[in-house]
Amino acid sequence: MQTIDVRQLAGKMRNSPIDLIDVRTPVEFRELHADGALNVPLDGLVPAELLQSRGDRANEPLYLICKSGGRSAKAAQKCIDAGFMNVVSVDGGTSAWAQAGLPIQRGKKAVSLERQVRILAGLLTLVGAMLGYFVHPAFVGLSAFIGAGLMFAGITDTCGMGMMLAKMPWNKVGDAGACQVG
């Protein structure tokens, strides 16, 4: 899989138009994104549709960016698995882009999805422990379930709680706040 440094990518963007796709959630994208990026969330990424939307630019490199590089690497692999090889993941993602002082767009602040997962996991663990102590010992199973889920998320780099939270109404952006390819 190809990767590119944010400064190298910015140089390419100055010389010619490129397709830069941000695969974070619409709320994350709305809060902060690289200037010129379009939002196609990873969970809704359909490589064939994305390639078709590019028209005559389908053979040119497609640059993918996220917060730090993890999701863009997954999106690149998804495209490669679909037969499109000319995809490039941006090293360090939007965090590195902003740190480098490159042009960004800022919007409405939001609680990050990662932070929402930590809050909910902590709350459910506490509730399970409290109910297990005050109501019935079987409620400790809730805390164990959350712990097992966090362990699974760490091992597989897939977070079911995060995917669920991403679909909640407060994590949606209306048409006015989202940029979509297509």
Describe the structure.
48% of the residues lie in helices and 13% in strands. The protein has 182 residues and is an alpha/beta fold. The strands form 2 sheets. A 5-stranded parallel beta sheet has the order 1-6-5-2-4. Strand 5, helix 4 and strand 6 form a beta-alpha-beta unit. The two termini are 25 Å apart.
Would you kindly provide a brief summary of this structure?
With 182 residues, the protein is α/β, with parallel strands linked by helices. Helix content is 48%, strand content 13%. The strands form two sheets. It has a five-stranded parallel sheet with strand order 1-6-5-2-4. Strands 3-7 form a two-stranded antiparallel sheet.
